[in-house]
């Protein structure tokens, strides 16, 4: 795999001062597309949430909904 430099080439980029600076009023060169951008991802789990945390969240949601339903029934009666 070859490495592509994200830096512009000074001899092919207009408007760059020596050292790579951009003078006032000049638009800097655009960023090119880099196929190797970003870190290599070695740990990518294929599934979403684990079963235990999802079950805990569902139980809490059901308990809270049951509480508010019971509270509404008490206020009506």
UniProtKB/TrEMBL annotation:
<keyword id="KW-1133">Transmembrane helix</keyword>
<feature type="transmembrane region" description="Helical">
    <location>
        <begin position="54"/>
        <end position="76"/>
    </location>
</feature>
<keyword id="KW-0472">Membrane</keyword>
<feature type="region of interest" description="Disordered">
    <location>
        <begin position="1"/>
        <end position="48"/>
    </location>
</feature>
<keyword id="KW-0812">Transmembrane</keyword>
<dbReference type="Pfam" id="PF20088">
    <property type="entry name" value="DUF6480"/>
</dbReference>
<protein>
    <submittedName>
        <fullName>Uncharacterized protein</fullName>
    </submittedName>
</protein>
<dbReference type="InterPro" id="IPR045512">
    <property type="entry name" value="DUF6480"/>
</dbReference>
């Amino acid at each position: 795999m070859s490495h592509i430099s994200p830096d512009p080439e000074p001899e092919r980029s207009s408007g760059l001062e020596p050292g790579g600076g951009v003078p006032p009023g000049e638009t800097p060169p655009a960023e090119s597309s880099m196929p190797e951008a970003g870190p290599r991802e070695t740990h990518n789990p294929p599934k979403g949430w684990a079963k235990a945390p999802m079950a805990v969240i569902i139980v809490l949601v059901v308990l809270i909904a049951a509480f508010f339903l019971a509270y509404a029934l008490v206020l009506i009666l």
